[in-house]
């Protein structure tokens, strides 16, 4: 069977996209290089983001996942109720003076400090998630572009094969007469 010659990225750009290789965006050039070399698309977005994550990034992700969960909200609500009960009724029942009686000023201070620390950490995690989303979008774009280009290549190969078979059939038909 006849085999098509390997194409360079420059040839593929002209053939498949109808543009010069130098006019293409970096992602398009990378995809054409991979197609010409016959290599697969690299690791997925989560793997790429994980390799670039610092300890602080991973800690921010964990704090955000815990701080933004129903388990945290329920547990924290139970701690608040326990704090108020202990400082209102339980200690008074034993004749002790509550260490943070109503209006719970120390509890308000702790909650304010928690919010002051937790909010920037959650925002760091959200920024990291936005970076992951950008990496995923770029990766998806490359996968989609490569898929489209491979479909175009296959279409052209089939066209070439059909032309070859038709020419062969015509030459065989001409030999019969």
Topology record:
Elements: H1 9-17, H2 26-37, H3 45-51, H4 55-67, H5 70-93, H6 105-176
Helix pairs in contact: 1-2, 2-6, 3-6, 4-6
Protein name: Cyclic nucleotide-binding protein
Organism: Novosphingobium pentaromativorans US6-1
Pfam families: DUF1003
Fold and architecture overview:
InterPro entries: DUF1003. This is Cyclic nucleotide-binding protein. Keywords: Membrane, Transmembrane, Transmembrane helix. The protein has a domain of 123 residues. The protein has six helices and no strands.
Radius of gyration: 32 Å
- General form: rod-shaped
Please, what is the average pLDDT?
85
Number of strands: 0
Report the end-to-end length measured between terminal Cα atoms. Answer: 26 Å
Low-confidence stretches: none
Structural class: mainly alpha
How would a crystallographer describe the biggest sheet?
Answer: none
Q: Tally the helices: what do you get?
A: 6
Helix content: over 70%
Percent in strands: under 5%
- Order of helix and strand elements from N to C terminus: HHHHHH
Pfam families: DUF1003
Transmembrane segments: 63-85, 105-124
InterPro entries: DUF1003
Protein name: Cyclic nucleotide-binding protein
Summary tags:
177 residues, 77% helix, rod-shaped, mainly alpha, 6 helices
Outline of the structure:
77% of the residues lie in helices and 0% in strands. The protein has helices spanning 9-17, 26-37, 45-51, 55-67, 70-93, 105-176.
């Amino acid at each position: 069977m006849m085999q098509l010659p390997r194409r360079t990225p420059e040839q593929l750009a002209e053939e498949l996209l109808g543009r010069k290789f130098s006019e293409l965006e970096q992602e398009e050039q990378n995809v054409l290089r991979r197609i010409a070399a016959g290599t697969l698309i690299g690791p997925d977005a989560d793997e790429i983001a994980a390799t670039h994550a610092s300890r602080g990034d991973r800690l921010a992700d964990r704090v955000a996942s815990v701080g933004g969960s129903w388990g945290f909200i329920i547990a924290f609500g139970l701690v608040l109720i326990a704090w108020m009960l202990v400082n209102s009724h339980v200690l008074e029942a034993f004749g002790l003076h509550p260490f943070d009686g109503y209006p719970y000023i120390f509890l308000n201070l702790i909650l304010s400090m928690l919010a002051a620390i937790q909010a920037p950490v959650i925002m760091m995690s959200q920024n990291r998630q936005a970076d992951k989303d950008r990496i995923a979008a770029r990766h998806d774009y490359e996968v989609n572009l490569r898929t489209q280009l491979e479909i175009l290549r296959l279409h052209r190969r089939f066209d070439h094969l059909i032309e070859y078979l038709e020419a062969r059939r015509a030459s065989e038909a001409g030999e019969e007469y």
